Amino acid sequence: MNTIKRIEIVVPAIELKPVLKRLENNGVKKYSIIRHVVGRGEFGESTDDLDDQLSGVYILMTCAIGEEESLYLDLKPILEKFGGMFLVSDAVGYRY
Amino acid sequence: MNTIKRIEIVVPAIELKPVLKRLENNGVKKYSIIRHVVGRGEFGESTDDLDDQLSGVYILMTCAIGEEESLYLDLKPILEKFGGMFLVSDAVGYRY
Amino acid sequence: MNTIKRIEIVVPAIELKPVLKRLENNGVKKYSIIRHVVGRGEFGESTDDLDDQLSGVYILMTCAIGEEESLYLDLKPILEKFGGMFLVSDAVGYRY
Amino acid sequence: MEFSLILSNILNPPVLFFFVGMAAIWLKSDLEIPQPLPKMFSLYLLFAIGFKGGHEIIKSGLSWDIGITLLAAIAMACLVPIYSFFILRLKLDIYNAAAIAATYGSISAVTFITASALLTKLELGFGGHMVAALALMESPAIVVGIFLVRLSVDAGEQKPDAVEAVPWTEILREACLNGSVFLLVSSLIIGLLTGENGWGKIKPFSDDLFYGILCFFLLDMGLIAARRINDLKQAGPFVIGFSLLMPVLNAVIGIGLAKLLGMSVGNALLFTVLCASASYIAVPAAMRMSVPEANPSLYISMALALTFPFNIIVGIPIYLQVIQRLWT
Amino acid sequence: MEFSLILSNILNPPVLFFFVGMAAIWLKSDLEIPQPLPKMFSLYLLFAIGFKGGHEIIKSGLSWDIGITLLAAIAMACLVPIYSFFILRLKLDIYNAAAIAATYGSISAVTFITASALLTKLELGFGGHMVAALALMESPAIVVGIFLVRLSVDAGEQKPDAVEAVPWTEILREACLNGSVFLLVSSLIIGLLTGENGWGKIKPFSDDLFYGILCFFLLDMGLIAARRINDLKQAGPFVIGFSLLMPVLNAVIGIGLAKLLGMSVGNALLFTVLCASASYIAVPAAMRMSVPEANPSLYISMALALTFPFNIIVGIPIYLQVIQRLWT
Amino acid sequence: MEFSLILSNILNPPVLFFFVGMAAIWLKSDLEIPQPLPKMFSLYLLFAIGFKGGHEIIKSGLSWDIGITLLAAIAMACLVPIYSFFILRLKLDIYNAAAIAATYGSISAVTFITASALLTKLELGFGGHMVAALALMESPAIVVGIFLVRLSVDAGEQKPDAVEAVPWTEILREACLNGSVFLLVSSLIIGLLTGENGWGKIKPFSDDLFYGILCFFLLDMGLIAARRINDLKQAGPFVIGFSLLMPVLNAVIGIGLAKLLGMSVGNALLFTVLCASASYIAVPAAMRMSVPEANPSLYISMALALTFPFNIIVGIPIYLQVIQRLWT
Ligand SMILES: Nc1ncnc2c1ncn2[C@@H]1O[C@H](COP(=O)(O)O)[C@@H](O)[C@H]1O
Ligand SMILES: Nc1ncnc2c1ncn2[C@@H]1O[C@H](COP(=O)(O)O)[C@@H](O)[C@H]1O
Ligand SMILES: Nc1ncnc2c1ncn2[C@@H]1O[C@H](COP(=O)(O)O)[C@@H](O)[C@H]1O
Ligand code: NA
Ligand code: NA
Ligand code: NA
User: Fold this and answer.
1) Beta strand residue intervals within chain C, DSSP E
2) Interior angle at CA C74, CA C70 and CA C75, nearest 5
3) D81-327, what's its fold?
4) What's the rounded mean pLDDT across residues F235-242?
5) End-to-end C-alpha distance for chain B, whole angstroms
6) How far apart are CA A10 and CA E290, in angstroms?
7) Banded pLDDT at F156 (limits 50, 70, 90)
8) What integer is the mean pLDDT of B83-88?
9) Domain ranges across chain D
10) What is the SS3 string spanning F156-167?
11) pLDDT in tens, D47-91
12) Whether the Cβ atoms of residue D258 and residue D271 lie closer than 8 Å to each other
């Protein structure tokens, strides 16, 4: 039971692989992914009506307090180029 | 990087359109939607075994601190009539 | 509108039924479930490529402050034996 | 004799797969047909039966008889929910009574399809216009159900409603344009418009695969029905009795009307089955929106876990037996 | 006379189901075909058309004519985006112009399939190698589009890009190995390799169901196209004009080339349709990754909500009419 | 001569599509068949092969030979995991050894189906009861695997387990009622019960589409197998050797038993393939639950990424070759 940071990301489905790669390079070893996320953002609507390549994916993970900044900086170029959301909140991790 | 409110909603799938309309009327321009949410609440079980019209949808969005109240008030009639969840938590938005 | 605990769990799909049973025994009457969650953890990768029996499920629920501990203790054996995530965060519940 | 027809009905692969589904749940097998596959099967069946209906109408032509059958269908779709409502009010509140009444006024396409499969097996013909009757009977009960609620709920006792009530025109539109009816009617019209040429191209898909896909769909219905039976545990004898006796009452009235109007044996069975069956998708979805005060797990489970298996397993062969006796 | 062909095209079940889809949205029906069913239909159609193409090539053999047709196909796939780009630059920025140009340089497999269904209906033959042309025309426009951006964007004005630019080899690989092209080409090769024996086993799946599944796929395309039309509301007359006139211009060039190369009527129609159609899946996905500055809802909606219906409904029969006149 | 049979096996569309799937991953194509489509294909194949098996049993009748074959099948399903376990214990811990042993004691329905497709192509018959053998061999290894763990793990060294150990009856029930076995056996029984009449209605679905859907399923298996090969990189030569040699050992024993029992060539091949194949769905799911200490990516990848392709590509034709030589 630790106080940790809970990070949630939404990126375009086509960017899932590069994002995971960067996360893994940053030492993230545990994460959960929910696919087929639709929504709306700065880059317009993302849907899966035609093909799920144009939908989004949601990634949930945790990190120690203070590590969220560097994770964000590493993903920033992808998020800014292709769109995406990056939120951090506080959580207590019982098992994570 | 801002301290913001993170709002998560679950409503019956058939109410997604009216809920999005009200959110957009309230100036919400960015959100993520996860469909095919099942679960249990005051209105009984929601499943997608027969048809996904009877399942739920999860909506995630952010707002500035203080705006959550009016968003809730606007959705309240729908949530009370058709069921639904409305939670608010604190988050730090790096990109949102 | 109450300050509450927001609990999110990820467990292997095959453990959904026993987990829900324990939750219900603990008085949890409302929850939302997102299926087909993939990811990575201590127990390796969970995917749904072959069959969704090997994927994970995400469960979201709320409880009164202080109740999270006993919920965790009750699920702990399952989480430790079969894998899973258990996070708790603070939230304000408007309708839940 | 009745028993042999029941057996002949049961020994159809689709009906047997319904039992397999139920058995899977009772034996706690993990057999599952995940969404959206059941949705696809149901779209397919609507497409197939609509297209075939259109093609049959070309072959048979239109006639006065058809018009009268369609009128009778609409009449039954409006009447059944009205008398059901008053029966249900004996024990239930306005909202649940209206929602259940609407459920029983409408129809179950799969029950119709299963009956048509039995007719095909027994080489008893039926008219393509019966598909039109199916389409016409899906929606009126929704409107009647909402009407019954609004009429019954006194302005005074109605709780102030922050969500504006859906206007009538909207209700009518939604009732008539729900996806199932829309696909069914469109397919029927396209079957009509494209004639033999269209049929020749589509038949290997819509006709040859029909039985196999019906098996899968009924397998899934068996899974769902068995899961829902638990929901009825606290429902009490009134509700359970209604679920099993109402189809019989509606069937009796249906058979009488069919006899009166001089329908053929095949058409009479289908008409009877439309009257006797209840909706578990379209109407529940509409009621969930327009009468949210009612309890969906109640009206869905009644239609799905009791009335549907009852009709599929014993109803259809018995109705046919009675019709065959009365008609000869 | 032209009108009768348009009518004959429209009275095809697949085209009529496209209208049903559009009508469902306009009438606000809740008809829906959820993912991944449309994805499955699209994989099926690629498999079926690829396999059949391979089988046809065995029957017809290879020839110089085929080689020349394939070269012409690649040439058009490279040229169309180039001249489109300069037309689009009159009103649009580099990114959007390049992305739209790429979209129109590539092809729509379903438009091709609908045209081939009309040919089959009219008993006009076509060569299996046209499927190879389809495959060859899918990807070059992606490369040309990216090339146009990189050439146009001056190093100075380019914003410093923290994400390393994708190298050319990678772009080429991705363009040639996108899932659709890969499945199409693989199926064609397997159809070639396994000959009559393979065809005999696969035909009941790939050929007999073809029309039915095409109906479902076009039903879904109708739903999506109608939903996307709204996206074009703020697009302005230039963009709308481009979406409707560009296919005609490309068709005219295509017909001219086909005449010049002495293609048969069937091959000429398919070649024309490849030139006239625009991509709404493969290219948009590639552009979303490689030209993220462009607006996807613009180029997808143009290709899907205007050009696609235009070709399906009036384009195909008119192109065929013109070809039949010129060829006789 | 052996080579020509391998070639003939490889030039089957389904096997070629398996290669397409593997190639797609190696070439980094984005080709994908999203869930629940693979699940549907697998349900379809179980349904089709079960129904056909039931129909064949009607035609051939029951006999002592059949009973003996089924007993041999169960015996192999119990023996294979036992000797596998002791081989595996040379290098692996109890948990992984037991889980892998269970995997190899059970069977792969798709390997069986691919072998049966080769037999059909070569016009070599086989009995419907082989499908019953398939069903009977799916589950015993699960029970044996759990038994081996419980026997090997000394009460002392066992870590205190807060989750109550699943009782034996529960394990047996789950092993016998997993969805695949349940659907297969149900379909077989329904095929038996509904006879020629049922078969006539279902055949266009279950038989005519079989090859096409098998292609799609093997395409997906190719995608998954190629993705999983990476998981074996750190596995070491022992594990890799086991994955490739164990099927051969089991096949040899299977062929010997088949000869001893006087099976026909077709039945012998199917029996051999059942012995030689390993489970990558049912058993892993059961082991994940009952032996969570073992590493699923190890046993799934062995069965799926090595043993499965080995059997599909070279195993089946070689086993057949050997059987044909020994039988004549
Ligand atoms: N504030 C937000 N709340 C929820 N989801 C968001 C938010 N911002 C972005 N997203 C998600 O991230 C995707 C890409 O965002 P964007 O880069 O703004 O286009 C959107 O389609 C949404 O699904
Ligand atoms: N406390 C909660 N935690 C998680 N999900 C909830 C909660 N309350 C409601 N929900 C979700 O919202 C849906 C509608 O809730 P209700 O209005 O209570 O029937 C339920 O089916 C759940 O999916
Ligand atoms: N820190 C985490 N963040 C997000 N998801 C997690 C985390 N830890 C575990 N999970 C999820 O829970 C599943 C089981 O975790 P484990 O027991 O560590 O194998 C993983 O496959 C993930 O989907
Ligand atoms: Na009725
Ligand atoms: Na083009
Ligand atoms: Na085996």
Assistant:
1) 2-12, 31-41, 44-46, 56-63, 85-95
2) 120
3) Na+/H+ antiporter like fold (1.20.1530)
4) 94
5) 9
6) 19
7) very low
8) 98
9) 81-327
10) CCCCCCCCCCCC
11) 999 999 999 999 988 889 999 999 999 999 999 999 999 999 999
12) yes
**How many CB atoms lie under 10 A from the CB of residue E68?**
14
- Which tokens is E133 given? 């042309």
Helices (H) and strands (E) in chain C, counts: 2, 5
Residue D280 contacts residue D308 (beta carbons within 8 Å)? yes
Half-sphere CA count of F176, side-chain side, radius 13 A: 7
Q: Which ligand places an atom closest to the C-alpha of D106?
A: 4
Nearest listed ligand to the Cα of residue A40: 1
Hey, what are F71's tokens? 């007993």
SS3 C58: strand
ipTM score for this prediction: 0.95
Provide the number of structural domains found in chain A: 1
Residues A46, E276 contacting (CB under 8 angstroms) = no
Report CA E196 to chain centroid distance, whole Å: 29
Complete DSSP assignment for F142-203? HHHHHHHHHHHS-TTTSPP-SSPPPPHHHHHHHHHT-HHHHHHHHHHHHHHHHHHHHHHHHH
Closest C-alpha to E223, from E11, E6, E13, E28:
E28
Task: Output the six-digit token pair for D9.
Answer: 């009905």
Domain range holding C64?
Answer: 2-93
**Cβ D297–B12 below 8 Å, yes or no?**
no
Residues 6+ apart with CB under 8 A from D192: D54, D55, D57, D58
Q: Each residue of A22-53: b (16+ CB within 10 Å) or e?
A: ebeeeebebbbbbbbbbbbbebeebbbbbbbb
Are A70 and A12 a contacting pair, CB within 8 Å? Answer: no
Cα B59 to the center of its chain, rounded Å: 4
Q: What is the mean pLDDT of chain D?
A: 92
Name the helix (H) or strand (E) containing F318: helix F316-327
Chain A residue with CA closest to C86: the answer is A95
DSSP E294: S
Q: Looking at the complex, does the CB of residue D9 fall below 8 Å from at least one CB of chain E?
A: no
Helix and strand tally (H, E) in chain A? 2, 5
Helical axes E109-121 vs E2-10, angle rounded to 10°:
110
Gap between the Cα atoms of D182 and D186, Å rounded: 6
Nearest-CA residue for ligand 3 atom 12 is C84
Task: Please state, in angstroms and rounded to a whole number, the distance separating the CA atoms of residues F197 and F192.
Answer: 11
Give yes or no for a contact between D310 and D249, defined as CB atoms under 8 angstroms apart: no
Higher-confidence residue of E168 and D29: namely: D29
Does the CA dihedral D27-D31-D32-D33 come out positive or negative?
negative
pLDDT along chain A (96 residues), means of 10: 96 96 96 98 92 93 97 97 97 98
Pairing relationship of beta strands B44-46 and B56-63 according to DSSP bridges:
unpaired
Given a contact cutoff of 8 angstroms between Cβ atoms, the answer to whether D101 and D81 are in contact is yes
Interface contact flag, B95 A88, Cβ < 8 Å: no
pLDDT tens digits for D128-167? 999 999 999 999 999 999 999 999 986 545 555 556 677 8
CA distances from D298 to B50, D77, D94, D148 (A): 15, 21, 14, 18
Evaluate whether D204 touches E209 at the Cβ level (below 8 Å): yes
How is residue E311 annotated by DSSP? I
Q: In terms of Cα–Cα distance, which of D133, D149, D22 is closest to D85?
A: D149
Q: What is the pLDDT at residue D158?
A: 52
Helix pair angle (E236-260, E94-105), 10° resolution: 40
Mean pLDDT of F214-243: 94
**Are B and F neighbours with ≥3 CB pairs closer than 8 A?**
no
In angstroms, the first-to-last Cα distance of chain C is 9
**Run of H or E residues at B91:** strand B85-95
Q: What is the CATH number of the domain that holds A19?
A: 3.30.70.120
Residues with CB in 5 Å of ion ligand 5? E 107
| Residue corresponding to tokens 């689709």 | D14
Structure tokens belonging to residue F217: 């399923």
Residue E30 C-alpha, separation from nearest chain D C-alpha, in angstroms: 5
